[in-house]
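Hi all, posting the design record for the shared folder.

TITLE: backbone redesign
STEP: 1 of 1
STRUCTURE INPUT:
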């Protein structure tokens, strides 16, 4: 059984186990126990936000640090930097807090709830480099179960700076990040992707609450901000990295997405359009300076017409 297959089965178990339970502590407790027993992690647990600190929550494993300040250690850094952190060797992580000398590598996943981080999932191993991008993707998906329904979709809509700004404004969107999708090179840099030799598309990862916003609405809005008949070109940006597409990781979404694509083609009066609809093969987070770029640089380049932002 591959790691992906193991996580797929675990996700089904977790959804069934947590169904109907609304208390976050109970959900954390059972999710930590399930991950710990089924995957065999050395330390598996949660920390919850309490003011400017993380306080220890339900966990499986040896005694742990009770409180961790904002921005300190791997857990505090994942909270302050607002994204998952994978550490191959904790001794080389600046500011590492040694709760146990046995911990060698670590992964920490923020827990999002209504657009804010409410805690983190922390997993440690006694082996070096125990965690990879597959762990990151699946643990992020599993962590969304703590605070209720959340789903993921990936949109390639040209330059990802403007696309992220657009999607993060939509009510019901819990989290966004930009990166590179469905290419041939692992962990590419922006400079590598820019050469159009990696096969990656600039992409926005959107995590949303399906009880607040539907996949249909997100996809229909996606089609409003792109030119669906333009091949490898959006606005003034040209190249395969700027191709358009929708990438999914839940097969149950395919029928809905296929229907929207058909409706869009019929409305345009065409049999084909150069917009990809594919399973997500891979996604690599772009460098930090690209994340929320237009928030950091309000006058920065954006290929989207400002009028489009009035849609949301």
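Okay, here is what came back for every position:
SEQUENCE:
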């Amino acid at each position: 059984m591959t790691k992906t297959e193991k996580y797929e089965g675990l996700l089904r178990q977790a959804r069934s186990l947590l169904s109907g339970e609304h208390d976050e502590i109970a959900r954390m407790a059972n999710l930590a126990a399930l991950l710990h027993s089924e995957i065999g992690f050395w330390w598996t647990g949660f920390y919850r936000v309490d003011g400017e600190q993380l306080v220890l929550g339900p966990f499986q494993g040896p005694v742990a640090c009770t409180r961790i300040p904002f921005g300190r250690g791997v857990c505090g850094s994942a909270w302050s930097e607002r994204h998952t952190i994978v550490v191959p060797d904790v001794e080389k992580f600046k500011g590492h807090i040694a709760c146990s000398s046995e911990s060698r590598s670590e992964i920490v996943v923020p827990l999002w709830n209504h657009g804010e981080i409410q805690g983190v999932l922390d997993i440690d191993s006694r082996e070096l480099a125990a965690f990879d991008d597959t762990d990151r993707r699946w643990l992020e998906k599993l962590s969304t179960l703590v605070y209720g329904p959340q789903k993921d979709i990936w949109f390639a809509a040209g330059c990802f700076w403007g696309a992220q700004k657009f999607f993060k404004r939509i009510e019901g969107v819990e989290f966004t990040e930009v990166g590179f999708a469905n290419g041939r090179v692992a962990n590419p840099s922006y400079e590598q992707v820019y050469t159009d030799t990696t096969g990656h598309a600039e992409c926005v990862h959107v995590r949303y609450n399906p009880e607040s916003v539907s996949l249909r609405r997100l996809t229909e809005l996606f089609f409003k901000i792109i030119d669906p008949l333009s091949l490898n070109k959006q606005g003034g940006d040209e190249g395969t990295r700027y191709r358009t597409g929708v990438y999914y990781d839940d097969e149950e979404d395919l029928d809905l997405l296929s229907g929207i694509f058909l409706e869009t083609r019929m409305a345009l009066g065409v049999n084909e359009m150069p917009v990809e609809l594919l399973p997500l093969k891979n996604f690599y987070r772009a460098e930090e300076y690209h994340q929320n770029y237009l928030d950091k640089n309000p006058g920065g380049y954006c290929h989207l017409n400002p009028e489009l932002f009035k849609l949301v």
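COMMENT: DSSP finds nine helices and 14 strands in the chain.
Let me know if anyone wants the other runs.
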